[in-house]
Amino acid sequence: xxxxxxxxxxxxxxxxxxxxxxxxxxxxxxxxxxxxxxxxxxxxxxxxxxxxxxxxxxxxxxxxxxxxxxxxxxxxxxxxxxxxxxxxxxxxxxxxxxxxxxxxxxxxxxxxxxxxxxxxxxxxxxxxxxxxxxxxxxxxxxxxxxxxxxxxxxxxxxxxxxxxxxxxxxxxxxxxxxxxxxxxxxxxxxxxxxxxxxxxxxxxxxxxxxxxxxxxxxxxxxxxxxxxxxxxxxxxxxxxxxxxxxxxxxxxxxxxxxxxxxxxxxxxxxxxxxxxxxxxxxxxxxxxxxxxxxxxxxxxxxxxxxxxxxxxxxxxxxxxxxxxxxxxxxxxxxxxxxxxxxxxx
Length: 345
Ligand SMILES: Cc1cc2nc3c(=O)[nH]c(=O)nc-3n(C[C@H](O)[C@H](O)[C@H](O)COP(=O)(O)O)c2cc1C
Hints:
Largest sheet: 8 strands, parallel, barrel
CATH architecture: Alpha-Beta Barrel
CATH superfamily: Aldolase class I
Strand order of the largest sheet: 4-5-6-7-8-9-10-11
Strand content: 5-15%
Structural class: alpha/beta
Bound molecules: flavin mononucleotide
Order of helices and strands: HHHEEEEHEHEHEHHHEHEHEHEHE
Number of domains: 1
Shape: globular
CATH topology: TIM Barrel
Radius of gyration: 19 Å
Mean pLDDT: 96
Number of helices: 13
Helix content: 40-55%
């Protein structure tokens, strides 16, 4: 039976109690000094919500559209590899949870299961694919043909893992997630180091190779965002990989506003990094994101109780967002005033 989990911190606590320490640290930790990891939370914490009252908030519309796909609410599950460490049915179980909660899932390019199997567990339109270029162009082209045939709505290339970040919690414990993951049923790409050679030429190649709209994940500067749009990218994903790659970057919530201005509606915007409460989601949306993606918040749901745990985490987040919208006098996530959010310290 699924535990009730009254609040989101209860889910996180249950995951921590259940997981082996190394696995908890792999999920929870960040690169090197974990400055990026902390800064994501601090960046959100420094922002306040302006409280508007007497606004008739009986009806609140959380729905939005991402790359032409209608979403019931503006949150997505961020792509995460290594899910088999957190649940025996890993990516497939996460897809079941996404379907239960009616929430868009980005399937990780480092998934342990074939894309077809994960797609079957979440048969609706709410699924998109994250690509790691873990092989040459021939390997990617074959994979993308399978992704297209499985019904995924877009391909998002993760661009912030040219090299692997140094996660010192894992290094100190002499623990390697890749060894621990060898129990996963599907092989990973043949050459993970291929990512180091990627350039904007590969983005052009990707655009020509798939008929799906393409996105880029790991954009943190106005320059790269502009370039993405020039290269036909339709989804710009503002992210520092949840603090797991380059240490000491800006908080993603702080990188977001100038990127939104530079993109100027030419692409949809996703943001992630430290979003774990409804008020955080509201801040990301008011600062101009089309959708906010969450990683660890749903990962703890998966670890604590499988698909029902994923759905519980998402439904709590949705309730919190609804409450934050109503209490700040807002009735539509697509019409939030930018000055709803301001910096307090
Ligand atoms: C365990 C774990 C595995 C991840 N694997 C991937 C991955 O395979 N591909 C990817 O683009 N990002 C990956 N990420 C990064 C997430 O997609 C996302 O950017 C980040 O977790 C967002 O921050 P949050 O966890 O604070 O919400 C992973 C994150 C975690 C926690």
